[in-house]
Amino acid sequence: MQPRDLSDHSPYVPGRGVEEVARDRGIDPDDLIKLSSNENPHGPSPAAVEAIRERADRIHQYPKSSHTDLTAKLAEKWDVTPEQVWVSPGADGSIDYLSRAALDPGDEVLVPSPGFAYYAMSARYHHGAVSEYELDPGDDFAQDAEAVLTAYAGERIVYVTSPHNPTGSTMPLAEVEAIADATAEETLVVVDEAYGEFAEIDSAIPLVDERDDVAVLRTFSKAYGLAGLRIGYGVVPEAWGEAYARVNTPFAASELACRAAIAALDDEDHVSQSVETARWAREYIADEIDAPTVESAGNFVLAEVGDATGVTDAAQDRGVIVRDCTSFGLPNHVRISTGTREETREAVETLNETLADLGLGVRA
After folding, report:
1. Alpha-carbon distance 342 to 362, whole Å?
2. What is the pLDDT of residues 323-361, one digit of tens each?
3. CA neighbor of 214 nearest in space, from 179, 247, 253, 169
4. What are phi and psi of 181, to 5 degrees?
5. Average pLDDT along the chain
């Protein structure tokens, strides 16, 4: 007995963790700076931590009321109905829910290349097929409707990432509307705003109330610092609201995750500090790294270093973990997450020394 043919499925490749690098390199974990997973260097909201402590003795209960409370709070925040909010285990959970709700076997999705691997993975899990639209590195991976529509061939779902991972480029709302206007009535345009808090652009969520062919993904993993709890959500057209109960995994968002997210939504100071640090750090990286970079609206910067694997390996030996973007199809690029001011300065100095020693970078 064997599983079905999974040869078309590629595993997701995460950024390397502190513990595994420390073990492999024989380095004290406290001496490592991890800037590989776009995590919040300030940690979680203190209010979220307190909410977890207060609710820890209730984890024997299913998260019915907390899920309802979080849904209502998000609906109020975005001025939509509760039925339009699909709370999920991370934004990738909402991707799965949309795949279940939208895709018949053989239906196609259109995804950016390079881009977040899980769009395609989820489609294939649900017996869908995948097409790609290319973002041009010669144009700093700029995003516009033309790039998407040139590749569009009637796919059921079109994914847009704004800010885009791993490049940091954004898709203006006018371009999102142009895509939705030009695609078929049965095509859903999904705008992934996992890094939306860091960008100085408007969310696409208001479009969801105006039309029935746009949905938006959001997460608590980045600006809110709750990556370890796996909590996110989608905002869908009102006509899609009834589908949630038919496609979501029962009680997938945990009690502690929901309560932490509710508390984090009210901790505006923590979010403001996280966004301010990220914006400072991405400018510092772009200005000081000895390699060409792409302008970013996220909490990371993509740098062209010439040999991603060589640079990431050598940097780890020196105590800095950055993301090798070979798995994104960018073997010459690394993605550097924004850290605290101290971490960012130290990491850039180490990376510049690494580039010079390897004979890479613009000043090598």
Report:
1. 24
2. 999 999 999 999 999 999 999 999 999 999 999 999 987
3. 179
4. -65, -35
5. 94
**Residue whose token pair is 């043919």:** 5
- Burial class, 162, CB count within 10 angstroms (exposed 0-12 / middle 13-18 / buried 19+): buried
Per-residue pLDDT tens digits for 263-277: 999 999 999 999 999
Tens of pLDDT, residue by residue over 72-109, are 999 999 999 999 999 999 999 999 999 999 999 999 99
**Side chain identity at 209, as an amino acid letter?**
D
Every domain of the chain with CATH number 3.90.1150.10 lies at: 18-43+269-358
C-beta neighbour count of 27 within 10 angstroms: 16
The one-letter code for the residue type at 215 is A
Q: Which amino acid is at 122?
A: S
CATH topology of domain 57-266: Aspartate Aminotransferase; domain 2 (3.40.640)
CA–chain centroid gap for 51, Å, is 25
Tell me: the pLDDT tens digits for 236-260? 999 999 999 999 999 999 999 999 9
Contact at 8 Å (CB) between 36 and 343? no
Alpha carbon distance, N-terminus to C-terminus of the chain: 55
**18-43+269-358 sits in which CATH class?**
alpha beta
- State the CB neighbour count (10 A cutoff) for residue 8: 9
CATH 3.40.640.10 residue ranges for the chain: 57-266
